């Protein structure tokens, strides 16, 4: 990871930089891979609906940002889908972007780590990621999130729903039985959906292998 970056919380004065970086980062990608956001979305977050952390190059250019949103966004209901308590505090890792020149340096993972630390310790955290965007969901799995469901959201776009328990409730993941796991690579989405609906969860089971593990492994 670059060591020459300056990290800080972004404010209203950074709105145009955020919008510009978002537009550049998703250029050429369809809604089946990423969720395009309007400037109003970022403006609301900067006005108190959440927080946005950013990384700046030595010259001051914004080269990465990550969104932490308070509460679930319309159309995604992890509190209902994942059986969280009705009074659970929920925060969402609601997107991030990295400038092209800074990709391949694990900045996505760093953005996830920093937002997890920034979140309320009692908050249940979730995120969404397109199955066709492995860079996104692999980074989330690497940082302790689990794939819990497949859902059509954001105007009928297919997304993994990933979740991570509150830091105050987090316990180490149980050892994974690699023989029982089903590697995600090559596993049809309809089969993934079936397994997830029966309590399987997606996680890293080896340094380079993401897989679904059965409920009995999860609950050990």
Report on the architecture of this protein.
With 220 residues, the protein is an alpha+beta fold. It folds into two domains: 6-170, Aminopeptidase; 172-220, no CATH class. It has helices at 15-25, 39-49, 78-81, 107-118, 134-142, 189-197, 215-218, and strands at residues 6-9, 50-56, 62-70, 90-98, 124-129, 146-153, 157-164, 182-183, 201-206, 209-213. The strands form two sheets. A seven-stranded mixed β-sheet has the order 1-2-3-4-5-7-6, with helices on both faces. It has a three-stranded antiparallel β-sheet with strand order 8-10-9.
Give the helix/strand class.
alpha+beta
Give the CATH H-level superfamily of the largest domain.
Answer: Gcn5-related N-acetyltransferase (GNAT)
Count of extended strands: 10
For the biggest sheet, the summary is: 7 strands, mixed
What is the overall silhouette?
Answer: globular
Please tally the helical runs, counting DSSP H or I stretches of 4 or more residues.
7
Domain N-acetyltransferase: 5-165
Protein name: N-acetyltransferase domain-containing protein
Organism: Castellaniella denitrificans
InterPro entries: Acyl_CoA_acyltransferase (IPR016181), GNAT_dom (IPR000182)
